[in-house]
Specification:
The structure is a single chain. By secondary structure, this protein is mainly alpha-helical. The chain has 8 helices and 5 strands, in the order ββαβαββαααααα. It folds into 2 domains: 72 residues, no CATH class; 90 residues, no CATH class. The longest helix is centred in the middle third of the chain and has 16 residues.
């Protein structure tokens, strides 16, 4: 546990799991200040009735149910403003060096737009930039995401889906 600047104890996931495993009454946990990075799903596993965990106090002083907390933040990507404002379609199209690449990226961008995933692409651009900055090593690619040439251009994976003629609809369905 840590204390915030107001002297409140901030409970991490491990602290809450320990309390739950010790048989602590879940109703007493509702007003604890909880670290926002906590994995609530893991905690629910330890509780007989998940409805008992409906209200939590998060460090920013807001009392919300977990669904309310998620609803407010579902479209609020935590990344610098420059990435929020990035014209991701133009950025990816500018990475293309041939007419075939432009065609493929255009088709994929239409699919990403159809599924309202441009914010996800902006976030992935941010994530890749952060990983490069801190020299984090990540895998070659995983699952159906390697069928997206846009993700290849962003550096999310290293499988050239055009070379292997992979269908982007495998990923975006």
């Amino acid at each position: 546990m840590k204390k915030n600047k107001f002297g409140e104890m901030i409970f991490a996931e491990e602290d809450l799991c320990n309390l739950l495993m010790q048989g602590q009454d879940v109703t007493q946990l509702k007003n604890l200040v909880v670290d926002p990075s906590i994995n609530i799903e893991r905690l629910i596993h330890f509780v007989q009735e998940p409805g008992d965990l409906l209200t939590w106090t998060f460090p920013h002083g807001s009392d919300q149910s977990i669904p309310e907390f998620d609803a407010v933040r579902i479209n609020k990507w935590l990344m610098p403003e420059e990435y929020h404002d990035l014209d991701i379609a133009k950025y990816v199209l500018d990475l293309c060096t041939s007419q075939a690449q432009l065609q493929r990226v255009g088709e994929e961008l239409l699919l990403y737009q159809q599924y309202n995933l441009f914010d996800l692409l902006r976030y992935l651009k941010y994530l890749v930039d952060v990983m490069k900055t801190y020299r984090v090593i990540w895998g070659v690619g995983r699952g159906s995401s390697v069928s997206s040439y846009v993700l290849f251009l962003l550096g999310v994976h290293r499988v050239d889906s055009m070379f292997y003629d992979l269908d982007p609809r495998e990923f975006l369905r």
